[in-house]
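Exercise 7.
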Amino acid sequence: MRDVIYLDRMEQAETLLKPQRVEVLRQLAAPRSCTEVAEVLDQTPQRVHYHVKQLVKAGLATQVSERRVRGVQEGLYQAAARSYWLSPRLVGRIGSRDELALGHLVDLAEQIQVDVAALDRSSELPSVGVSGEIRVPPEERQQFLAELQTTLQELFTRYGGAEGDAFRIALACYPKGEDR
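Solution. The predicted structure, written as C-alpha cells, is:
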C-alpha cells in the first residue's frame, strides 16, 4: 500500500468522489472481502462488489488475494493508498480575470503536492515546512516584498550551484484575508 496517490485524472476523481465509495475505500484499509465490507456498512455484498470493482478499475484499490468460501472463490481487496490527493486542476479556475493573478499560487501549491506525493517515504527525508504571519503596514509593503526577494536571491546565489542534492524552495506570500 502506498502512502499517497495523487489523482490528476478526472475519471479517478469521479470514481472516488461518491460518498459510498469513500466509505468502502475506508473499510479497505486492511484486506477485506466485499461480504465483510457489506456487513460493516449494512449494504448488500452485490452493491459493495459493484463499488469495489469501480475502485479497482480506477486504480484506487487492488485485489490482494482470493480464498475459497463455501465452494466459491472470494476476492480480498485493499485500498491502493492511505491517502488520495486531488489535483486542483480537476476543478479548474473559477472567477474573473483579475483573480487569475493568484492562480500562480494555486499552481505552486499543486506542484508542491505533486512533488511530495512522489517522494520515496522509505527513509527519512530532509525537509522543512514553515508557516507564519507577518503584519506589514500598507506604506511598508513594497519594502517588505523587496527585502524578501533580496533575501531569497542571496540564498539562491549562495546555494544555486550545479552540484549536490537538489531541493525545491517554494514561498507563497499573499494577503491573509478578512482580518488583515
